[in-house]
Amino acid sequence: MISRQEEYVFNFLKEVVNSMYEENITNLNFNVYRGYLPNSKVDFATQTKEEQGDDKYFPFFLLRVLDYEHLRSGIDTYNTRCDFELAIGMKIEDPQEYLDVVRVSEFVCEKLMSNSTIKNKFNVDQTKPFKMQWFKDQAKPYMYCVCSFTTTGNVAISKINTSGVYGFDEFPVKLVSILI
């Protein structure tokens, strides 16, 4: 259930990236990752200076699951809650590009919060805060936005024992035979 919910959010983020281009939010080519940034196991001795470093990962969206709860809700259903963290990373060379990070993160927030249910797969819990924090890496010209949000969905339905309660389906027959 957790992996399914993460898959739904991940696929939705890929659609958000495509809609950013269509709506002229940005013309940057965003990479969408899950869990962690890819590990570059390469031979740096054979790379040019432009091929070295972390620039090839930027700009990016990085989706991670932080917390998951599966709670019984009634006799035959469960509620699920999943906390996500979405990091948005961009290289900034001009102070005006800071606004690009704000604009992109705001666009993602609007897309996630605009519908109560997204594609009939999951919904962002609008009773919980959608939190955004921005960070500037001092060593390099990178800017990050970290968004935290909670989704609900993918409920599991318990099978109901229709043959009797706790195996006592023969109880009335045995009781009657004892009384007779």
Structure, described:
The chain has 180 residues and is α+β, with helices and mostly antiparallel strands. Helices cover 26% and strands 29% of the residues. The protein is built from 3 helices and 6 strands, in the order αβββαβββα. The chain has helices at residues 2-22, 98-113, 171-179, and strands at 31-34, 60-72, 78-91, 122-124, 131-137, 142-153. Strands 1, 2, 3, 4, 5 and 6 form a 6-stranded mixed beta sheet that branches. Strand 5 and strand 6 form a beta hairpin. The N and C termini lie far apart (51 Å). The model is unreliable at 42-49 and 168-177 (pLDDT under 50).
State the total count of DSSP E strands.
Answer: 6
Amount of beta strand: 25-35%
What is the terminal-to-terminal distance? 51 Å
Overall helicity: 25-40%
The rough form would be described as elongated
Sheet of most strands: 6 strands, mixed
Gyration radius from CA atoms, angstroms: 24 Å
- The succession of helices and strands, N to C, reads HEEEHEEEH
Individual helix count: 3
Structural topology:
Layout: H1 2-22, E1 31-34, E2 60-72, E3 78-91, H2 98-113, E4 122-124, E5 131-137, E6 142-153, H3 171-179
List keywords for this structure.
180 residues, alpha+beta, 26% helix
